[in-house]
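Reopening this one. Same input as before:
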Amino acid sequence: MHEHIAIPDYPAVTWAFVYRGMKVEVTTSTHYEQQIYSAWVTYDTGSAVAVPRADSPERAIAQAKKWIHTHFDWE
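Same output, byte for byte:
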C-alpha cells in the first residue's frame, strides 16, 4: 500500500467564523516543509475549498471572502 494512502494528512482548522451566513474554516498544513493555509466554505447546499493554498491566514481569509462574493448572488 502507498504510504500517502496509509497515512492521510488531515489539515488542522486554526480559525473558523461565519461570514454572510456561511461557515469559513481556515486550515493549515505543511507542503514541502512550508506552512500553507487553505479556506473551506460551508453553505446551505454543500461546501467547497474556496482557497486551496495561501501563504498566510490573512490572505486565505481575504480570498475566501472574495470567493463568497463572486459565487453567490447578493442582490
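So the earlier flakiness isn't reproducible anymore. For the record, The chain has a mean pLDDT of 89.
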